[in-house]
Amino acid sequence: MPPSPDDLPDELPSHYQNTLLAYHPKYTKRKAQRFPVSPGKRFKMGPTVGSKADQEERSQLIVRFYDPKIKARDTRRRTLEDILSWPDSTLESCHNYIQMLFPLPEGSFFNLDTPVVDVDVMQAFHSRDDLRQQLRRSFERMLTFYGFQVSTEPETKLEKTHGEQKVVLQETQKNTSLSAALNGNASASNAPPYNIIRGSNWHDQCQNWAVQFDHNHLRISRIIRCLRVLGLEREATAFFAALERTYKDPQLVISAKSMKFWRSAATRPLHIAPDDEKCDWLETWEKEQESSDKSVNPDGEALENQEDDSSA
User: Fold this and answer.
1) Tens-digit pLDDT profile for residues 206-250
2) Residue 149 φ/ψ, nearest 5 degrees
């Protein structure tokens, strides 16, 4: 069942206000009473408190938090290892860790001190495999929490586990120029298959989130977008494919609105958030990547040089 409006925090992440308000007219009324705004304007609040230097320092906390040698603590004095060791019950009930594990270029209403991703943070993750590996650990911990697991099995396969049939589907890997840029210089073709399938704990864990609407739907949108921004495009693609299969399962009922947000997080240009908010510096970065891709052919030769040779 959807959570009661009275059980939800007063402030919501900017990305997901519209989604939640669509489900809860009572919550809409309560928010309108507490935060009156002009018609056509959406109430927003971002972690822009403090100077630019303060904001940059907070952003760099993301790198230090994920650096396996530094192991910095977040603003609540927790390390990555602390959070990853939590039981599922704590991951479900605590609402102020997900923003640190999966930071975004946009702010959070749950925690105004949460650092946001800037261009320096993004480039650090794209260039450092150790940071991406740590982020992958966070992602795979949440996969277990949701009842999924990672598989390298590249082909559709039918297994029997404890008397139940489990379908293992091969994920379609998108080998685009953008995903290649996100994953650095390594060849995507050399990466092992990365598939996400239902785990042995699926039956128990899916009941916590594979419902019409749940606060975990907001977390999932955040996770997908974070993975893409910080260089784990392959993992984001596999996760979305698993979610899409879950959505199509006739035995489950997940809101079409939630699926729309997940699809937006997985497929839109990076500079456009699921709620249509735009990030200027990400748009600039994407344009630079596109320009670079157009100037080089698959053999790595500049197209303009090739044209000069052909006209000689």
Assistant:
1) 999 999 999 999 999 999 999 999 999 999 999 999 999 999 999
2) -150, 160
**DSSP code of residue 8:** S
Confidence of residue 5 (pLDDT cuts 50, 70, 90): very low
Adjacent-strand bridge partners of 158: 167
Q: Which long-range contacts (CB under 8 A, 24 or more apart) does 53-61 make?
A: 55/116, 55/118, 56/118, 56/120, 58/113, 58/114, 58/115, 58/116, 59/115, 59/116, 59/117, 59/118, 59/120, 59/121, 60/115, 60/120, 60/121, 61/115
* Dist. CA 178–CA 296, nearest whole Å: 14
Residue 292: which H helix or E strand, with range?
A: helix 280-294
Of 193, 43, 59, which is closest to residue 113 (Cα–Cα)? 59
The pLDDT tens digits of the residues spanning 63-110 come to 999 999 999 999 999 999 999 999 999 999 999 999 999 999 998 766
3: how many CB neighbours lie within 10 A of its CB? 14
Q: Is there a contact between 274 and 18 (Cβ–Cβ < 8 Å)?
A: no
Which one, of 164, 146, 166, lies nearest residue 243 by Cα? 146
With a cut of 90, say whether residue 19 has pLDDT above it. no
Dig out the tokens for 156 from the structure: 């559709």
Q: In this predicted structure, what is the pLDDT of residue 113?
A: 78
pTM, rounded to two decimals:
0.74
Contact 180, 172 (CB under 8 A): no
Cα separation, 138 vs 219, whole angstroms? 13
